[in-house]
Amino acid sequence: MRVAMVGRYYNRQGGVSRVLAELSDRAARDGDDVDVYAHEVLDADPASPVRFVTVPMRTRPVWLDVPSFARHADRALRRERYDIVHVHDGQALHADVVTAHSCYAAWLDDVRSGAGVKGLLSHVYPRHVVTDQWERRVYRRGSTGAAVVAISRVVAGELERHHQVPPERISVIHNGVDIAGFRPAASADAARAALPPEARVADDRVVLAFVGMYFRRKGLEPLLRALGGLRDAPWELLVVGGDDDTPFRALAAELGIAPRVRFLGHRPDVAPFLQAADAFVFPTSYEPFGLVITEALACGTPVITARIAGAAELMQDGREGILLDRPTDPDELGAAVRRFLSLSSEARTAMRAAARETAVGASWDAQWARYAALFSEVAERRHEGQPAWG
């Protein structure tokens, strides 16, 4: 097939951009003729047969970036003929398949439900208004619209509620995970020895890891409060992420756990920390997917996370980790951590094996196979003059 894949950024560093790169490379590897339409390309394999088409985009003001990119991308796409045009998050309107990585309307509705100035200003802040209107334009195109891939059942439900996208129009295909780059260490001792000196802990301690860019939304505060109630347990926490840690350091000191919490800042490679951890704790309050969850699973590290996180749909409570109903509740979170700490070594070993097994089933190759089947189905329908879905 001749395939166009469209997204503002192509690289292996972000979320949407990572999906664009992984899928386009696999499509080309399997023999498809692939053109990627992007504003910026990084981390491209010079040996890959993927061709890149540079798309102009306005970057100021910031709320015009997506409409600007989409307008230029649509203009370029109309000059070509493809079997499949695959677009990420509605970054072009000329599409056969759209992958929804989130639902902006759902997030915005949550912001507006809160009291205070932030909720009021969200009704007039240009980026919110423009992005919300654009998203509605993308998904409310009725039977003539593209087939939709949601990266989780969480996102699928939000599209149904906020944009009335028919459920039969939506396929759920989770994001993949790099099972070669994220894999179990040779041994627990080797994993801990590989950590930088500032992250090393005593052998008799249980290592908990938290990785995230937005500490407040990802749940670091309730995690610290939960651990404040577990001072009798032999844990240490590694916090990896580039957010401002000042208020969280102060909270750890207030709770009397500061010596047991290591704030390690941004790290370009988080795999060593996930490999060295006995458990990855991620009590996020909202997460359309959460790639770091599957990366932890791929390292064979049990995960304690919110049931509402998209990637948690791949897990079963007690099998790969522990699922939280109220992730922001320190009492429930503390009970979950204590539950993990009480597991026997045999139970933890079984949990680690299950985590890796689940990640392998969600590898990029496995998820690309699901996309490839959908692309073939949509291309056949289009060839017969039918809508992309029906």
TrEMBL record:
Species annotation: Svornostia abyssi
Protein name, entry field: Glycosyltransferase family 4 protein
Stored Pfam families: Glyco_transf_4, Glycos_transf_1
Annotated ranges, domain Glycosyltransferase subfamily 4-like N-terminal: 14-179
InterPro entries in alphabetical order: Glyco_trans_1, Glyco_trans_4-like_N
Domain Glycosyl transferase family: 199-357
Keywords from the UniProt entry: Glycosyltransferase, Transferase
